[in-house]
């Protein structure tokens, strides 16, 4: 459905906490509407699935039905991911003293982020609801993984950390603010968060949809419930008690669509475009150096571009 069809309509839904989710309807997909919510101050789908519905999706169905090749492809990309993760750990290490190296990865997937942290000398722990991904992390990589969602009872048992990573997590949750509140409580004062979420309804996507006839392929409820941009994610993080210390962007892979490589309707092109993106990132990281790659990533963020938002935040030292 083309953007603009619903722009004059509004939708409203009161949740169990008596929050009225109301705002202009941007898209309608799979029985859901995506609204620009006045209460939440970011875009999200309504109706919001129950925790029980999401539990059924992510414990068993997500990797098997939605991403059957995810673990295989993730491992094929390990060299690239190691460089990406090195960059993220380097920034965390820059903002923490050497003795503070305890990290929790929420939504740890198959575990390569934690594996890289362990190789860099961090004490690592993961939480992952998918049975398949958690089993791989434990059995193949020897990582300590809780096969669960992060909820208050588990949070009490986990202890405290110097950093928490949430890579592509907040877009899936019915209440991302509640998750950030739990994470805030898990961090010692001065602790850091690293958040990665898709950068949705971004300028390139708008051009592709509004002028070049692409459907809104990035709108995918119930798996993606929340749709952030740089200002709305930073606003949520600040309202959750954190200071934003840096925002970066990943490679704007939508560029390939603008150049005529239609990987949306021709999935075989997606892997080819991803390979080109990997070569670009590795060239910058291996030959241009970390400062050039960071400058590029930060410049993209300043323009609202990039496929993912990478935000670093700090829990105040007096919190």
Could you describe the 3D structure shown?
With 319 residues, the chain is α/β, with parallel strands linked by helices. The protein folds into two domains: 1-48; 68-314, Vaccinia Virus protein VP39 (Rossmann fold, 3-Layer(aba) Sandwich), CATH 3.40.50. 42% of the residues lie in helices and 22% in strands. It is built from twelve helices and twelve strands. It has helices at residues 51-66, 70-76, 78-94, 112-119, 131-141, 152-158, 176-186, 203-210, 230-239, 254-258, 267-288, 290-302; strands spanning 10-14, 20-29, 32-36, 43-46, 102-106, 123-127, 145-146, 161-167, 187-198, 226-227, 243-249, 308-314. It has a seven-stranded mixed β-sheet, with helices on both faces. β2 (20-29) and β3 form a beta hairpin. The longest helix is centred in the C-terminal third of the chain and has 22 residues, at 267-288. The protein is globular.
Main pleated-sheet profile: 7 strands, mixed
Order of helices and strands: EEEEHHHEHEHEHEHEHEHEHHHE
Strand content: 15-25%
The beta-strand count equals 12
In CATH terms, the superfamily of the largest domain is Vaccinia Virus protein VP39
Helix and strand layout, with pairings?
Layout: E1 10-14, E2 20-29, E3 32-36, E4 43-46, H1 51-66, H2 70-76, H3 78-94, E5 102-106, H4 112-119, E6 123-127, H5 131-141, E7 145-146, H6 152-158, E8 161-167, H7 176-186, E9 187-198, H8 203-210, E10 226-227, H9 230-239, E11 243-249, H10 254-258, H11 267-288, H12 290-302, E12 308-314
Parallel strand pairs: 5-6, 5-8, 6-7, 8-9
Antiparallel strand pairs: 1-2, 2-3, 3-4, 4-10, 9-12, 11-12
Helix pairs in contact: 3-4, 6-7, 11-12
């Amino acid at each position: 459905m083309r953007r603009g069809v619903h722009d004059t309509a509004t939708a409203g839904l009161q949740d169990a906490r008596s929050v009225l989710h109301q705002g202009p309807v941007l898209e309608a997909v799979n029985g859901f509407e995506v609204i620009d919510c006045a209460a939440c101050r970011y875009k999200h789908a309504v109706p919001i699935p129950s925790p029980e519905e999401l539990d059924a999706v992510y414990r068993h169905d997500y990797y098997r039905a939605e991403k059957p090749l995810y673990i295989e492809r993730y491992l094929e990309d390990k060299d690239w991911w190691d460089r990406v993760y090195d960059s993220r750990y380097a920034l965390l290490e820059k903002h923490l003293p050497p003795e503070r190296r305890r990290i929790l990865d929420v939504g740890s997937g198959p575990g390569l982020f934690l594996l890289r942290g362990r190789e860099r000398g961090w004490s690592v722990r993961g939480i992952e609801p998918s049975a398949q991904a958690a089993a791989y992390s434990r059995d193949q990589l020897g990582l300590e993984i809780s096969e669960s969602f992060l909820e208050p009872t588990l949070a009490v048992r986990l202890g405290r950390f110097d950093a928490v990573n949430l890579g592509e997590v907040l877009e899936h949750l019915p209440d991302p603010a509640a998750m950030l509140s739990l994470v805030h409580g898990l961090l010692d004062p001065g602790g850091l968060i690293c958040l990665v979420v898709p950068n949705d309804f971004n300028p390139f996507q708008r051009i592709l949809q509004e002028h070049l006839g692409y459907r809104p392929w990035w709108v995918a409820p119930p798996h993606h419930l929340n749709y952030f941009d740089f200002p709305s994610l930073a606003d949520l993080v600040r309202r959750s008690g954190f200071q934003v210390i840096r925002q970066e962007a990943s490679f704007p892979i939508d560029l390939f669509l603008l150049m005529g490589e239609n990987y949306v309707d021709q999935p075989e092109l997606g892997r080819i475009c991803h390979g080109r993106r990997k070569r670009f990132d590795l060239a910058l990281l291996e030959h241009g150096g970390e400062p050039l790659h960071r400058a590029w990533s930060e410049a993209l963020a300043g323009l609202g571009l990039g496929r993912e938002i990478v935000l670093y935040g700090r829990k105040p030292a007096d919190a």
